[in-house]
Amino acid sequence: MASLLKELPSMSTILAAYASLSAMAMLIRTILNEMIPKPMQRFINTKFSNLVSKYLSSNFTFIIEERWQAVYNETFRAVEVYLPTRIGPSTDKLLLGSNDINNPTSPPKRKIPSDCKIIDEFEGITLEWTLHVKESEKYYIPDKKTYHLTCKKRVRELVEQKYFPHIAKTAQTILSKREKLNIYTYNQDRSRWESAVFKHPARFETLAMEPELKQFIMDDLDSFVGRKDFFENVGRAWKRGYLLFGPPGTGKSSLVAAIANYLNYNVYDLQFQSVRNDADLRRILTSTTNRSILLIEDIDCSTKISKDRGKLKNDREKEGEVGRTDRPSAIDPGVTLSGLLNFIDGLWSSCGNERIIIFTTNHKEKLDPALLRPGRMDVHIHMGYCTPTGFRKLATTYLGIKDDKLFGPIDDLIKVVEVTPAEVAQQLMIKSDDPEAALHGLITYLNTKKDKVGEDVIQQEEEAKDENNKNDGNQTKEPDESKTGCIYLS
């Protein structure tokens, strides 16, 4: 034994040999890095890792990407909801944050950061999750996110057949019991939806709307939600389109919030100005989730969509552009009417279930007739001026009273004065602590508005009369048939 120990090299000899080998390895690595291009290095590393994994490793890895072909990966969504519930002592790091601006003191939400390991147990099997994020080199292309699930090769089939369905069911249960809704807006620079907590107080019970109309909307929503089999049997996508039209301040946004709260659906608020083209629109809309509301407000503000195709043709004829082949069919960049129609009622409309699409506009007459037909905008709801019934609902909500001696005069004024529910609510809020003073203030406001409308009518009549007289005195000028002097009050 003693002779054997004497034959062993000394510690200094071992260290010297290790230093020589390390220096040689570093030299070889430096030479290879200088001589072999980066893509070739990555290829060699990948092949070497695969070789080691194939013959030496007993593990198997499932990879779940954020997008699956042309649409969002529902398995990825389920994992994203499920994993924060499996955070345990072995988790080495976490993302914490809150987007609830209404309750800054609420506990922060948990999210999984990049390269964080989550250990889960299922039927006696140990499973390891990791989130990998590859940053995009181009600002308009989102980062690529993938979840990696590592397990033993021998349990691969059990994980695939039982564990993933377990994740999907658990995620569905979590989403169905969610207490908070989110509202999403599309970030064009980062090419993704970003959310905030949606806490809007509007309910059908508080809307200043005719009871029959409210009941019709709720019945229609209930019918839509409960008719999944019907839509499948008749071969139609499970979606519903609503058009809310009327003057500003008539409660269109409040109705959208009431629908979201009634159905417990998240809201995706899309501004067409943030969409580059039709292809971008398809990618954006296929990234929305099922059981959600897609809101497109003030659709008439998009010239390409609000003008019908006949008007566009006439405009081009006036500009002398007919026959030109060097000009594309789209008048301006961005989303085209054809692109929007193809999504809401074309083949792409089947990429998702239980979705409600709501359009709002102040000017229904500006919309292309192709947008208005059933299948695209199934239900047209006119949001008009305040009615006596609407006023009484607002008085109950804001003042806490259901009747008063001043209700009669206010009803009479509301019947002849065009006033929006928003205007009435604002007047009642000024002195909501004194109902009598608030009602008197509303009467004063309505009388002032009535007098102003009368003055405007008189002024318009005088201007029209002066214009007619001017045309009559000018013998060389042809009469302008568009100025007839008639006053049309809506």
What does this structure look like?
The protein is of the alpha/beta class and 490 residues long. The chain folds into three domains: 53-177, no CATH class; 192-319 and 330-382, Rossmann fold, CATH 3.40.50; 388-471, no CATH class. The protein is 45% helix and 17% strand. The protein contains 17 helices and 15 strands. It has helices spanning 2-7, 11-35, 38-55, 74-82, 156-176, 211-225, 228-234, 252-263, 278-285, 303-306, 309-318, 337-345, 369-372, 388-399, 407-416, 421-430, 435-473, and strands at 59-65, 67-68, 71-72, 95-97, 109-111, 117-122, 125-134, 144-152, 181-187, 192-198, 239-245, 266-269, 292-296, 355-361, 379-382. Strands 10-9-12-13-14-11-15 form a seven-stranded mixed sheet, with helices on one face. A four-stranded antiparallel sheet has the order 1-8-7-6, with helices on one face. Helix 9 (278-285) packs parallel to helix 12 (337-345) and helix 16 (421-430) packs across helix 17 (435-473). Belongs to the AAA ATPase family. BCS1 subfamily. GO terms for molecular function: ATP binding; ATP hydrolysis activity. Residues 310-329, 461-490 are annotated as: Disordered. It catalyses: ATP + H2O = ADP + phosphate + H(+).
